[in-house]
Amino acid sequence: MKAHLITRQGWMTLDKELKYLWKEYRPQITLKVQEAAAQGDRSENADYTYNKRLLRQIDSRVRYLVKRLEELKIVDYSPQQEGKIYFGAWFELENEAGERVRYRIVGKDELDTKLGYITIDSPMARALIGKQVDDEVVVQTPSGPKEWYINNIRYTPFETPLEGEPE
């Protein structure tokens, strides 16, 4: 079963997108459709056809966001989580070769590999839930098991990037 969890920041991002689409972008496109329709023959009017298609895409995304926001459960930080990896945690791992990586566990709607966000449903997140600093974790990957050591856990972003990470 997939988790319907999201951080407060993630929920606010989706809500902001929904409000923008519904209150700003959709009315702009609707006006363009009306203006193009007023020009007469719609069958060969590229502006009309393009904007009608865009309107359908906006409506589809709005329907998805409304439904999705209703079923998501916001998970806020709780002091009982301190020192262990749970939903919303940022953490640093190191393997035997000394390679270090940083990730954050989020819901599927927030997934962004460039930011180091992994979903709660990923094998790594599942293996790490409830673990603490200095624990050794084995993560099953398609290329076989990988061993990681937990160096750091926090519930606020890391201030400085690792070497080679984007700032």
Proportion of residues in extended strands: 15-25%
What's the overall geometry? Answer: elongated
Low-confidence segments = none
H and E order: EHHEEEEHEE
C-alpha Rg (nearest Å):
22 Å
The strand count comes to 7
Biggest sheet, strands in spatial order?
A: 5-4-3-7-6
Structural class: alpha/beta
In round numbers, the mean pLDDT is 91
Oligomer: single chain
| Sheet with the most strands, sense and barrel status | 5 strands, mixed
Q: What is the straight-line distance between the termini?
A: 35 Å
Helicity range: 25-40%
Total helical segments: 3
Protein name: Transcription elongation factor GreB
Domain Transcription elongation factor GreA/GreB N-terminal: 5-74
Family: Belongs to the GreA/GreB family. GreB subfamily.
Domain Transcription elongation factor GreA/GreB C-terminal: 81-155
Task: Walk me through what this model shows.
It contains three helices and seven strands. It has 167 residues and is α/β, with parallel strands linked by helices. A hairpin with a 2-residue loop joins strand 6 (136-141) and strand 7. Helix 1 runs antiparallel to helix 2. The model has no long low-confidence stretch (mean pLDDT 91). Residues 81-155 form the Transcription elongation factor GreA/GreB C-terminal domain. Residues 5-74 form the Transcription elongation factor GreA/GreB N-terminal domain.
Task: Give the secondary structure arrangement, pairings included.
Elements: E1 5-6, H1 8-37, H2 46-71, E2 73-74, E3 90-94, E4 100-106, E5 117-119, H3 123-128, E6 136-141, E7 144-154
Parallel strand pairs: 1-2, 4-5
Antiparallel strand pairs: 3-4, 3-7, 6-7
Helix pairs in contact: 1-2
